[in-house]
Known about the structure:
By secondary structure, the protein is mainly beta. It is built from three helices and 16 strands.
Amino acid sequence: MLPHQKPPEMIIFLRHCPRRFPRAGMALCVAAIVGLSAGSAAAQNCFFFFCPPGSQPGWQGTPVPDRQGEPVRPFFSGGDLPYSTIYAESNGEPFPVPALRLSDVDPTYLRKSVYYATDEPPGTIVIDPQRHFLYLVEGGGRAIRYGVGVGRSGFEWSGVATIHNKQEWPDWYPPKEMIERQPELRRVMSDLQSGVGMHGGPGNPLGARALYLWQGNKDTLFRIHGTVEPWTIGKNVSSGCIRMINQDVIDLYERAPVGARVLVLSSRANALRP
C-alpha cells in the first residue's frame, strides 16, 4: 500500500496489562477496558496504566531493522547532539519532564530523520500503527519519524483527520463507564471544571501534550499525546490513542499546527516503510 492511499479502517487491539510490583505500597496500577460504540463517551479516552516510575524493566527483544539501503540518522535540532541530550530532563516546563532512560525504549523507536517517499504535502502527519511509527512529512523525500504506542483491539476508525486543537499538560477525563468499572480510579480523580478527572501534571496519563483529532466538525475522540510510561512505546497498549515519549510529543506539538492533516494507515497495511 502506498503512503498516500487511504485505508478503509484502522483496527486497534486492546487487552489487560499484567504487571507486578515489588512492593505492595507502590503507586496504583490500573488497567481499565472501555467498550466503544457509536456515540459512546467511553471512546474519548485512551486505555491507561498508572504505574510507579522505574517499576517496569527496559525493553526486551531485538531492535526492528530499518529499511535496508536507506540511511537513517537521529534527528537533532542542531549540532551533533546525542540522544542523552535530546531526551534529557527538561525544567523549562510547568512541570518537570524527567530524562528518558534510554534502556527503557527500543532504539528503533527513538526520534530519527528518515527517507520517506510520499505524495502527502509537508506538514502532514502519517501514523503507521502496524510498525508503531508516526511520520511528520518534511518534503524532499524526508520525514521526522517518532516511535509510538498504539491501541490493542476493538476500536475501528477511518484514517483521515485534522488537528482541531492542542493542549499543554492537558487534564484527563475518564468516561463514566471506566470509573464505574474501576472505582479505585476515584482515588486519583477530583471534580474539575468539565467533570470528574485528573489535573494535568507529571502523573497524568496524557503526559506533557495532547493533540485532538477531528473529522470535519466531529471529534473523533482520539488523541496524540505523551505518556508517563515510555517503555510502552513500540507496543500495542492503548485503546486507540497514539502515545509518544514526552520529549517527542513536545517536539511534535511545536512543529504541527492546528489544522494539520493526519493520515492513519490501516493496522493491516503491509506497505514497505523505512
